[in-house]
């Protein structure tokens, strides 16, 4: 005989972990199921920069509203998770610089041209209040808070049959199931596609060269608490001519000439789960009302995490 729970959350990346944590914190009996791979979350930059995302997907009022609401939710979410969110998972709101943009996004302010002296071009503007978080450290904190709140974690591939989930030899029967499975082919929503992205992790002799998030039309740089820099990212759509990571590196090197002396510590590769330019799918499945889909967060899984978790909680209450 297997275990029973109120809610099973399948997918243990940032989105699934945030949902499971929030539900457990509200007193629900929650099981988080992950396959041991962090997928897109492991390759994510962790930026909390809605203004830049709107410049990437301009003219999308639904997306703009979602980005603004989730960005506003992040401060309370971070404080709820930790007394020192920067130390625990790199959360900061130091703002973000834009370089090489012709238009200024909402909320951006003019900036001294000498603000980034080690970059090849002066900043076009500065967006106060934006920032970043470190995704894998955030996931670790979410899972820790989940278990403290009474939830549990099961590792393995999940096979779903109605309200029954098989994970290896274990059977879990759930009142409701939440799918936060990214691009997993067997549990994906209709129309889901994976948009491949690649990025680098480097260390400069002087990490203070990059004081906060810096974005250009061709590359972005995100400093992390340990002094490393995340440099991203390619975006390769199915069927399109792929952008090579070497091209990304050349773009980043043009932006920050000092990268020529950097140690390259790692290379990331992942699939961004895409459904719609208007934002993710967070809703009950039309044919199976016990099933909630939280999928298709594309470039903004980290940014959308608190809002998606809130939305799923409200759906389950309804």
Structural descriptors:
single chain; 318 residues; alpha/beta; FAD/NAD(P)-binding domain; 8-stranded mixed β-sheet; 7-stranded mixed β-sheet; elongated; oxidoreductase; FAD-dependent oxidoreductase; FAD/NAD-bd_sf; FAD-dep_OxRdtase; oxidoreductase activity
Structural account:
The protein is of the alpha/beta class and 318 residues long. It has a single domain, classed as FAD/NAD(P)-binding domain. 29% of the residues lie in helices and 28% in strands. Strands 1, 2, 7, 8, 9, 10, 16 and 17 form an eight-stranded mixed β-sheet that branches. A seven-stranded mixed β-sheet has the order 5-4-12-13-14-11-15. Helix 1 runs parallel beside helix 6 and helix 4 packs across helix 8. The mean pLDDT is 93.
Write the layout of secondary structure elements.
Elements: E1 3-10, H1 14-25, E2 30-34, H2 39-43, E3 47-48, H3 50-56, H4 61-81, H5 85-89, E4 96-98, E5 125-127, E6 131-132, H6 135-148, E7 152-155, E8 158-161, E9 164-167, E10 170-179, E11 193-203, E12 213-215, E13 220-223, E14 228-232, H7 245-255, E15 263-274, E16 281-284, E17 291-295, H8 301-317
Parallel strand pairs: 1-2, 1-10, 2-7, 4-12, 10-17
Antiparallel strand pairs: 3-6, 4-5, 8-9, 9-10, 11-14, 11-15, 12-13, 13-14, 16-17
């Amino acid at each position: 005989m297997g275990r029973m729970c109120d809610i099973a959350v399948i997918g243990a990346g940032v989105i699934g972990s945030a949902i499971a944590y929030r539900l457990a914190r509200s007193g629900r009996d929650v099981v988080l199921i992950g396959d041991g791979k962090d997928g897109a979350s492991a390759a994510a930059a962790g930026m909390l920069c809605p203004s830049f995302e709107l410049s990437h997907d301009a003219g999308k009022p639904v997306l703009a509203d979602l980005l603004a609401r989730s960005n506003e939710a992040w401060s309370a979410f971070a404080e709820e998770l930790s007394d020192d969110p920067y130390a625990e998972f790199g959360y900061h709101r130091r703002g973000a610089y834009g370089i090489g943009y012709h238009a200024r996004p909402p909320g951006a302010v003019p900036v001294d041209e000498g603000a980034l002296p080690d970059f090849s071009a002066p900043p076009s503007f500065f967006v106060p209040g934006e920032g970043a978080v470190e995704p894998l450290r955030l996931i670790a904190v979410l899972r820790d808070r989940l278990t403290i709140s009474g939830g549990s974690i099961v590792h393995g591939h999940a096979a779903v049959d109605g309200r029954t989930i098989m994970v290896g030899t274990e059977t879990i029967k759930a009142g409701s199931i939440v799918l936060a499975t990214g691009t997993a082919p067997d549990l994906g929503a209709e129309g889901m596609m994976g948009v491949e992205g690649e990025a680098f992790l480097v260390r400069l002799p002087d990490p203070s060269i990059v004081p906060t998030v810096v974005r250009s039309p061709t590359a972005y740089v995100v400093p992390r608490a340990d002094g490393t820099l995340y440099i991203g990212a390619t975006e390769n759509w199915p069927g399109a001519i792929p952008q090579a990571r070497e091209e990304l590196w050349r773009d980043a090197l043009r932006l920050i000439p000092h990268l020529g002396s950097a140690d390259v510590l790692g290379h990331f590769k992942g699939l961004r789960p895409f459904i719609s330019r208007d934002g993710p799918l967070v809703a009950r499945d039309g044919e199976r009302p016990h099933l909630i889909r939280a999928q298709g967060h594309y470039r903004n899984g980290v940014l959308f995490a608190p809002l998606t978790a809130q939305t799923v909680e409200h759906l389950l209450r309804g």
